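Project standup — Tuesday

K.O.: blocked on the structure for the chain from last sprint. Re-posting the sequence here as requested.
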Amino acid sequence: MSDRYQSISYHQQLWHVPANANFSAIGDDVDALYTSQSSLNALVTNWAVVENIMLAIATAPTYSDADTFTLPGNWTDYFGVNKLVVGYCGTDGVKASTVLSSSYGAGITTINLNDAVLTANLERVSVEAVRDGLWPHGTGVVNALDYKQAGYTGRETLEDAIAAIGVLNRILTVAPDPDGDWEIDDDLEFPQNVTPKILRGAVLEVADTKSLTFNAAIDAGPYHWLTLVGSATVTMENQAEAWLNWLCDGGIGTSGNPWASFDDTAGISSLLDAGVGKLRMVEGYYLVEPFSKSSVNNFCLSGAGRGR
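H.V.: unblocked you, prediction finished:
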């Protein structure tokens, strides 16, 4: 086997195969894995989540037609829309497509593919693993983009990810969306068991009159990731401190043009309303017009370097 495919590993009692592997080249090795492990079915819930892996389904599939197969039991959480599926069709070779839909009924999961590639010699399947740490021995980290579907708004994607987490204590990572900002087009609430981790470059844009509520402390650095349109609001429960730069453009001015074209008044006011006890700011220029608050208690403003 070439060096490229030597990363196949046995971990947490389940074999992991990289998603970009040449499946034809490793077919014989995968055969050996299946024959050497007699009870993979009972171990499926113990697989460890790693980046870009293929999960070998131990349960034998039943061929229905060129773009459909079934599995006994409920596998709908594994076969989400657009997940990569690899079918091993004996002498007909290895076939690949993506999930069009999956449904469960009468003890059977039916998986429909986007391409008619399967043959009647279908012996087994693998599916691209969701990198979400939902299982008992997972990482505990859910990647929100794994739940994005065609036509989804940012809110719908986040709602699906939160629903998948359920009552588990998990970190929900919000990475930059290749299609643009995360559009929060209706009220959205993060429960207390879901810790949001907002990566640099991701921006949640809350539509006018809508609300965004966080019931767990947010994990994010001193960069802009939140936009409130019109009278949109944000609430940050259990947030001991926050960066002013989450919502404000301040700190980006220069001595030659210190105020640029931004006004941080609304951003500061919104963060005060959000319930944050301590606001931190990076060194830079901040434009703040006079405003008053009558319901802010035990509040601290902390600077880093010289504020202007």
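K.O.: great, moving the ticket to review. Residues 1-26, 35-52, 252-259 have pLDDT under 50 and may be disordered. Residues 186 and 210 are 5 Å apart (CA to CA).
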